[in-house]
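Quiz preparation item.
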C-alpha cells in the first residue's frame, strides 16, 4: 500500500493515495512555510508553485536554494482557489489562518490541503514531521529537528541556574512605517517572539497589557512605563540598524533608560528577520540569549553559527553564504 496519511496543524487527517508529486505553497505567510518546505531536498523537484512574498529589498532567498524557482508558477499572496487549481496540485500547503479564504474553497474543488503553523518550538517539531511524511523523507525531519534540539539544549544549559533577579526585563518591538505611519507593536503571549524572550533568559515586559490575537500597537508612553532593561527593534521591510540609529537621535527615546545605558538593539535579519516562526528562529534565539547573558556565551560566533545553519539546513556553501547572506546581514556586530 503506497498511501500516505498525515495529521496536520488543525488536527485534520489527510490521506493521499501515494506521495504527492506536485506541491503548491500558497497564501499569506508563505515565505515562512516555503522556508520550511525547502528543508527537504525533494522540494526542488516537487514544488511547482509558490506565492511570492519578500520581506527584503535584497531579493528572494528561495532562489538561492532552488535555482529553478524563477521558472515555477508564482502566485500572489491573495491568490484565489481557481488560480491555484491551474498548477494541478496534489497538495496545497497553507497557514491555518488561510482556511476560510483559500483552504475550504480548494477542498470544495477536490484539492487536498495540509495546514502547517510552526508558531512555537513544539509546533515546529510536529510540522517538520508532517513535512517529512509528505515528502517521503521522515529521516530528514529527524535530522533537522536534531539540529534545533542541539541548539535549544545548548542555550538551556548555558542559562541553567539563573534566578529571577538575573533575568533582564526585555521589550521586543516590531517597527512598521506603512504609508508613512510609524507604529510600534508587541506580540501576543503565545507567539514565538514572547516564547523566544523567555527561552533566552529574559522577562517579556509587554505581557501585562491586553494583547490581541495579532500584533498590538503601543505608544511611547506605554514603552516608557515598561522601563525595560533591554529593547530590541524588529523591522521586517526596512533596515533595523537604521531604525535604531534614528531612534537614538530622537529626544523622546533618549529619555528611556535602556537607550541611555546603550541597550537599544536591532534584531538581526538577512532576507528575513530572525524573530518569527521561520526556520531562522533558532538563530534569533542564539542571538537573544547571548545579548541578554553575554557572560554565558563568551565564545559564541554568531556569523559562524549562521553559516553552519544555511549549510546544514539548505546546503548553501561558505562562498554562497558570504556573498549572498552575510553581505546583507543586519543587526550583528562582527
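Solution:
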Amino acid at each position: 500500500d503506497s498511501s500516505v496519511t498525515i495529521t496536520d496543524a488543525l488536527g485534520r487527517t489527510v490521506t493521499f493515495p501515494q506521495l504527492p508529486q506536485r506541491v503548491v505553497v500558497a497564501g499569506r505567510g508563505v515565505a515562512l512555510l516555503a522556508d520550511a518546505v525547502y528543508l527537504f531536498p525533494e522540494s526542488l523537484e516537487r514544488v511547482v508553485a509558490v506565492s511570492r512574498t519578500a520581506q527584503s529589498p535584497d531579493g528572494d532567498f528561495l532562489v538561492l536554494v532552488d535555482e529553478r524557482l524563477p521558472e515555477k508558477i508564482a502566485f500572489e499572496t491573495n491568490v484565489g482557489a481557481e488560480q491555484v487549481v491551474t498548477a494541478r496540485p496534489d497538495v496545497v500547503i497553507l497557514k491555518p489562518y488561510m482556511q476560510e479564504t483559500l483552504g475550504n474553497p480548494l477542498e470544495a474543488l477536490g484539492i487536498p490541503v495540509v495546514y502547517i503553523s510552526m508558531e512555537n518550538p513544539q509546533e515546529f517539531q510536529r510540522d517538520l514531521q508532517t513535512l517529512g511524511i509528505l515528502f517521503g523523507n521522515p529521516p530528514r525531519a529527524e535530522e533537522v529537528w536534531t539540529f534545533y534540539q542541539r541548539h535549544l539544549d545548548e542555550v538551556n544549559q548555558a542559562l541553567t541556574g539563573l534566578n529571577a533577579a538575573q533575568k533582564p526585563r526585555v521589550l521586543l518591538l516590531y517597527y512598521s512605517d506603512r504609508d508613512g505611519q510609524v507604529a510600534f507593536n508587541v506580540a501576543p503571549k503565545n507567539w514565538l517572539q514572547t516564547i523566544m524572550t523567555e527561552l533566552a533568559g529574559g522577562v517579556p515586559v509587554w505581557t501585562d497589557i491586553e494583547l490581541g490575537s495579532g500584533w498590538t500597537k503601543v505608544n511611547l508612553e506605554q514603552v516608557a512605563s515598561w522601563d525595560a532593561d533591554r529593547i530590541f527593534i524588529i523591522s521586517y521591510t526596512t533596515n533595523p540598524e537604521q531604525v535604531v540609529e534614528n531612534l537614538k537621535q530622537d529626544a523622546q527615546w533618549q529619555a528611556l533608560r535602556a537607550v541611555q545605558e546603550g541597550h537599544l538593539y536591532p534584531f538581526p535579519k538577512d532576507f528575513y528577520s530572525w524573530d518569527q516562526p521561520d526556520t531562522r528562529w533558532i538563530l534569533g534565539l542564539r542571538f537573544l540569549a547571548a545579548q541578554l547573558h553575554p557572560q554565558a556565551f563568551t565564545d559564541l560566533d554568531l556569523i559562524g553559527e549562521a553559516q553552519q545553519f544555511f549549510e546544514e539546513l539548505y546546503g548553501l556553501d561558505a562562498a554562497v553564504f558570504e556573498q549572498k547572506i552575510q553581505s546583507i546581514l543586519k543587526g550583528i556586530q562582527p
